[in-house]
Amino acid sequence: MASKRTPTRSSTKAAPVSEASDQAVERVVIPKKRPRAVTPSAKPAKAAYFNRELSWLAFNRRVLEQARNEKHPLLERVKFLAIVSSNLDEFFEIRVSGIIQQVDSGLTEPSVDGLGPKESLRRIHSVVGSLVEDQYDCWHRELLPALAAEGIVFKTAAELTAAELTWVTAYFQEQVYPVLTPLALDQSHPFPQLGNKTLNVVVSLDNPATPEVEQLAAILPVPRILPRLVPIDPASGGSQQRFIFLSEVIKLCAGVFFPGYRINGAHAFRVTRNSDLYIDDEEAENLLKKIEEELRNLRRGAAVRLEIEEGVDDRIFKVLCENLDLSHEYVFRLNGPLNLLRLMSLADIDRPDLKYTPFTPVNVSPLRDVARIFETLREQDVLLHHPYDSFQPVVDFVEQAAADPHVFAIKQTLYRTSGDSPVVRALIEASRNGKQVTALVELKARFDEANNIQWAKQLEEAGVHVVYGLIGHKTHCKCSLVVRREGKLLRRYVHLGTGNYNPKTARLYTDLSYFTAREEITADVANLFNTLTGFSREPVFEHLLVAPYNLHRRLQELIRREAENAAAGRPARIIVKMNSLVDKATIDSLYAASGAGVKIDIIVRGVCCLVPGVKGLSDNIRVRSLVGRYLEHARAFYFENSGGEPLVLAGSADWMPRNFFRRVEVVYPVRDPALRRWITDELFVIELQDNDNARELRSNGAYVPVRRAAEAPVFSAHSYFIASATERARALAET
Question: What is the pTM of this model?
C-alpha cells in the first residue's frame, strides 16, 4: 500500500475511500528498485511518430465513447455528444484551415509522421466522415430513444400534433419572423457574407406563373440571439418536456417570406471559417510559417467546411459550394440537426436523476482561514487539487493581498478568466487601495480575445499597469506574486498553477495550485515578471523551468540523465502527465531513454505523437489517456533522479513546440517532501490504476480499454478523488 502523507505541510492529504464506496482497491506503489538496464540493440528501430491531426481525432472519438457509455447519466452523455461537435468546430477553424493553406500555397513538405498536406487532408476527411456518422448514429439510435423514455421528447415539424403546430406557428410569428431577413440568390443579389458557424436555411422555390424558369433560391440567415432549442408550449406539456430545433420551425414556416411562390424544400446549413487570425501562428505549429503573407490575408476567414442537411437540391448545393469556394470533400451532409453543441442547453433541465450526483469542491486546506493566509504560507507550502479542492483559496489569496495594508505590490498573469472574474475585481480594488498592481493580460488567448481586451481596459482605467508580455510569444504561465512588508523585511508569496485563474472552469478541469513563500522560488518568479515587463535577453532562472528560455533544454537534460542512470544500472523512472505530447526532440529523447531501459509512463489526455510499444524503440513506454467526468488539465512530471531525491515538477506547459518556443510557460519544482509524495503516491498511482475511463494507446494508433482482471473491481480515478475529498471534509467537520 502507498504510504500515507503527513498533514503538516499539505492541504491535500489523501484520505481512504469511504466504506460506502465500491471504488476502494489496493494501490500500486511506484517501485524504488529497478532491474539492471536493458542493453539497447546495436541497430535501433527507426523512429516513428503519429500524425498530430489524426491523434487529435482519436481523442475526440474517446469523447464520443463517453456519450455512448451507459454508465454515465443520460444528460451527461448528451453533454459529451455536444462537446464532440464543439471540438470539431475548433479543429476545422484552426488545424484544418492551416493545412488547407499549405495546400493552396503549393507546399508539399511532409510533417514528421511522413504525411504531406494533401494526404493529411485526405485522411482527416475520411476519419471525420466516420466520426460524424457515428456521432449522429449515437444521437438517433441511442440518445433520442433514451431521452424519450425519460419524457424528454424531440419533435420534427412532421411529428407535431395539431395543438403543437398551432403553438409553434404562433411562436414563429411572435419571436422569429420579426428578426429574419430573406436574401435572394440571383444576378441582382450578391451572395451574402455568412458568419462563421451561424445557422442558415436555404430555401428552394419557384414561381407557378412561370414554370419554365429554373428554380430560385434564397437564404434565411438566423441571428445568434435566437435560441436554437425551443421548448414546445412548456405550460401544457404535462409530464413530458417537448423540444423542437429552431431550424425545424423556420423550415416549417419559410413560405411566409415568399408569398405567391411555391416552396420546394428548405434545408439548414452552416459554414465553418478559418479563425486563425494571428501572424504568430501559435496553434498551427509549422503549418503556416512558410506561407506568404498575401496568401494568409487572402485566406483569412475563408470557408473550410460546409455542413448541410441531407436532401438539398443538387443545383442549390452547387451554388453554395461555388460561392463558398469549397470543393465537395469539405462538405458534410448530415442526417439530423446541425450543431449538436446546442444540446448543451439540456443541462439546464431540472432532472437531477439524469445528471451526475452533485459534488461541491471542498475547502479544507490550511488556507481556509483567510485572515492567516500569509502566516500559513510562511510556515508551509500548500498544494490544491482542483476541482476536488475548492478554487476559493486562490481567489482569497489575491483578495486578501488587495485588502492587506502591509501588501505593497501584486503581479498577476491573466490568460483566460471568467466574465465576472473575482481575481480581476481584486486587482482593481488593490490598485484603488494604492498598491502597485501589474497585470500581464494575454490579448491573443484564442476565442477569449474580446473578454481579455475588455478586462485590459477596465484594469488600465483603475490604474493597473497592464502589459502584454514578450513580442511573438503568448503569456500562458499561471503566476501570482504578492510583495508584503513584514517588519523591516519585504517578503514575497506566490501562487503557481497549471490552470487558468477562472473559478468556473476550475469546477470542471483537473488542475494543481501551488502556494509557497520559499525564497528560491519567489525570487525566480519576481525575475520572471521583471523579464516580462521590462527588457532581458537572457534571464537566468535558478529553480524554475521557463519557456522560451530554459524549459526545453532542461527537460532534455532530465530525460537524458534518467537514461544515463538506467544504462549504468542505477534506478531510473519517468512518469509524466500532460494534455499533449508533440515535440519531436522530446519524443526522440524519450525513445532514447526507453532504449536505455528507463520505464516510462505517460498520461496524456489529447494528442500524442509518440508511438509506444515498438520493439527496439519504445518497449519501455506506456501511454494512456483519461477521459471522463472532468477534463484532465494538470501537468506534472516525475524524474527518479538517480535513486536519490526525486524531482517532481508541475506547471503550465504541455510538451509541444508552441509551449517550448512560442509561449511563456512556467514549470516549478515541488519542494515539500509531503507534497511530492502526494503527487507520486497518490495522483500518479491512482491515475495509472484507473481501469474505467482510461484507454491505453497501442503502437497501431488504437486506444483500447485498459485490461482489467475478471475479479478486479471497476476503479475510476475521478470517483476516487471525489470520495477522498468528501472524506477529508467529513473528517474536518468532526474535529
Answer: 0.88
